């Protein structure tokens, strides 16, 4: 890949445009998009204009929003309309959503009426729903067709369809009646009727379904595409597996970001500006800093204790770190389990009961190591060793129970479980572990 | 789904087996597998034996390893062999890998020689490679065939292929020469030759390629299947998109687990035993607890300082929490960016330079809030406020630079970047922030 780019780059630098045009012909559209992303705006526009019409739309749909804007600014309205007409409607809508309103208006004015209507309809679906990621280019069969007729229909109309491999059978008013794959068509006799071979128990979703749920359904049933129907069960679009894969990657990335106390980003790391990045990180750090101050305030209550026995302070990092880590382990497993639909809100008590047992095993194990270490390092301070050990076991128990429960409780309150991740859990557990520690210390030690 | 299960469950409880058998016929294989998972071992075996032969293999391949064992123990060797013969070779190998060696031996002894040879060959590929997730059931065309001949070939042999939609063209000794999709076949004239319409620039991987890279290639190029070749470029198998999706989900889950300081688990949360879970969590907690002790030791060096000014201790949680959170934000973005191939080792300095700038903006913002708050809360203690604020800014700067750099350095050392996540970063930053804090304090304050 890198090598190919070097070749293309050399042709560009030497301004051997005819040779470059020929070389581009041989490349995959996705690699060309990568190549354009590596160029500056002016060069990208020059190279894009060299692409043959058949390639231009697919390369365009694989560009980042920023580069799409560069291209749109550098070509005529007529050329833009040509690309938009060639795109599948989901890609056209994605591109238009990123362009300034006046440009969109101008493009739609010049587009064919049916394209305009379709795009206007698709622009209305809410973000993150099935409607927002579906496309309208599917193969539509009728139950009365024979297999030979269906295959002829596909051969005639298949060119512009995003996928031909799963065909949908619709009745009057486009109501979804069945599904049949090209594999089934090819393996059937030519004179069989579609209604004999179609599966009428169709797995489908409605336009308002969450896109994450859509992706999970495609993955669960190993489907290549999933039909999307409106409230009246009329087929309005399909979501293909490649779009579902992209949704899964984006949703996982968003969860990673939220779980590390950041607002989700829209662009790859290296393409995100410094100020945008700072903004996405600042709010949560501020909230957590204030929580840290509260924890500090709690610690302030025990000033007399650690003034009289400064040794106690040196165990605080070990206690709070272990509490935070123990809690994040549990919350991470539960958040991920919920994202994969393996854990639901009804499992709250099962999760807590499991966490209590796990935390007792882990806590007592860590406590034992800790006790032995303290006895060896500080001989004669058995009561300090006992205090720290008891606080450690209690901290692990509470950290894991809270870490397991809070993501589920967040879901109960219709909040995103992913916010109940390491950073927030650590802050909560920090405060609790200090209270436990000094309460035990005040009972066992002469402070 | 839940409702369907209730119906099936009722039939099972009332022991209306004929009705249950009919009801199962109407269900999707994946839903039946879910239903079996919800039953106890004995019931699952009873229900499984009711399935028609055509369904049995697919239901079996969608069961968890534990339930597969239950089924294998409850049916005859002949029945097992029947299922193994019906499975695609990747699913057969997955199932066999989980069974006891003597059972595998018995099954293979009874299988057809070609199945046995194929399975033995596939069992040899290393875990997490392309070879370990590929299957052998693909459509194989020759360059001299006409489109009509190719379609006839697919209609004749397609039944047993895992996918027919992407066909591979092979030459002498099975060398991969080209690829053609069923869409292209259907849209071409019957008398065109395969070599005229095939794409001879095939995107493919070798058997030893990492499975994560395989999944990413399928996703990047929007492919439905990816050919796998040996060192001599001979086609030995294909990886289909549904297996790639599963790999992507598993790899993301593993990263979540590693980044929360756990060994990756093989089973869903609710199905993992308490002792297994404790084991997967204990080691890292122990390592991090020992690191926490070292941090405590560092803190011990400053005992005199906080004995003379106990107020200083109360700012420790805020400082270490903020440092840990700031560092985890950076390390999470970089680890995820590397998992998605958006960041590579050559970007080390670009990442560090970005993190330094972001951390200065974020650090100065947080520092300002912090300074104002301290001036208001502790009037007359300007030098304390200044000490804490400077320590905070320096901590954020160091935390983010280290958080961004360490995952990349781990990759340099051929280690998994995911271990350089929140828990380890927090521990490292904790120690550094305390050293910075007390060093600044010893210069600015009378301690």
UniProtKB/TrEMBL annotation, chains A, B:
Keywords linked to the UniProt accession: CBS domain, Cell membrane, Magnesium, Membrane, Metal-binding, Transmembrane, Transmembrane helix, Transport
Pfam family, one: MgtE
Transmembrane segments: 282-302, 356-376, 383-406, 418-440
Major localization class: membrane
GO MF, one annotated term: magnesium ion transmembrane transporter activity
Top-level taxon of the source organism: Bacteria
Subcellular location: Cell membrane; Membrane
Residues annotated as domain CBS: 198-254
Membrane topology, as annotated: Multi-pass membrane protein
GO CC field: plasma membrane
PROSITE patterns named in the record: CBS
Stated role: Acts as a magnesium transporter.
Similarity section: Belongs to the SLC41A transporter family.
Subunit structure: Homodimer.
Alphabetical list of PANTHER family matching this protein: MAGNESIUM TRANSPORTER MGTE (PTHR43773:SF1)
UniProt protein name: Magnesium transporter MgtE
Originating organism: Guopingia tenuis
Gene name of this polypeptide: mgtE
């Amino acid at each position: 890949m890198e090598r190919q780019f070097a070749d293309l780059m050399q042709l560009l630098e030497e301004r051997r445009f005819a040779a470059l045009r020929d070389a581009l012909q041989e490349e995959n559209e996705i690699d060309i998009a990568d190549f354009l992303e590596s160029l500056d705006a002016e060069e990208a526009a020059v190279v894009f204009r060299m692409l043959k019409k058949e390639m231009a739309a697919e390369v365009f749909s694989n560009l980042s929003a920023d580069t799409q804007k560069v291209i749109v600014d550098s070509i005529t309205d007529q050329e833009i309309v040509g690309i938009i007409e060639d795109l599948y409607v989901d890609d056209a809508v994605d591109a238009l959503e990123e362009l300034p309103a006046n440009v969109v208006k101008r493009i739609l004015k010049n587009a064919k009426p049916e394209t305009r209507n379709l795009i206007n309809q698709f622009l209305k679906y809410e973000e993150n729903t099935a409607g927002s990621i579906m496309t309208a280019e599917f193969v539509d069969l009728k139950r009365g067709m024979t297999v030979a007729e269906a295959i002829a229909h596909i051969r005639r109309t298949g060119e512009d369809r995003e996928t031909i491999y799963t065909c949908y059978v619709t009745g009057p008013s486009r109501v979804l009646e069945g599904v049949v794959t090209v594999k089934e068509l090819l393996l059937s006799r030519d004179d069989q009727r579609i209604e004999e071979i179609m599966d009428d128990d169709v797995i489908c979703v409605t336009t308002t379904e969450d896109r994450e749920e859509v992706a999970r359904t495609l993955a669960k049933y190993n489907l290549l595409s999933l039909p999307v129907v409106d409230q009246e069960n009329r087929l309005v679009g399909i979501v293909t597996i490649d779009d579902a894969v992209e949704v899964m990657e984006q949703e996982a990335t968003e969860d990673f970001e939220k779980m590390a106390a950041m607002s989700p980003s829209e662009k790859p790391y290296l393409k995100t500006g410094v100020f945008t990045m700072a903004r996405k990180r600042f709010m949560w750090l501020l909230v957590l800093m204030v929580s840290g101050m509260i924890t500090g305030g709690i610690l302030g209550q025990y000033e007399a204790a650690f003034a009289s026995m400064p040794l106690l302070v040196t165990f605080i990092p070990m206690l709070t770190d272990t509490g935070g880590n123990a809690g994040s382990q549990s919350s991470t497993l539960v958040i991920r389990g919920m994202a994969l639909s393996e854990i639901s809100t009804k499992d709250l008590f099962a999760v807590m009961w499991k966490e209590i047992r796990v935390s007792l095993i882990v806590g007592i194990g860590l406590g034992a190591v800790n006790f032995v270490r303290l006895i060896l390092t500080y001989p004669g301070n058995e009561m300090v060793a006992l205090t720290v050990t008891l606080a450690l076991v209690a901290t692990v128990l509470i950290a894991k129970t809270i870490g397991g429960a809070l993501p589920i409780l967040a879901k109960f309150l219709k909040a995103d479980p992913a916010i109940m991740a390491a950073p927030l859990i650590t802050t909560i557990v920090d405060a609790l572990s200090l209270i436990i520690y000094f309460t035990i210390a005040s009972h066992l030690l002469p402070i």
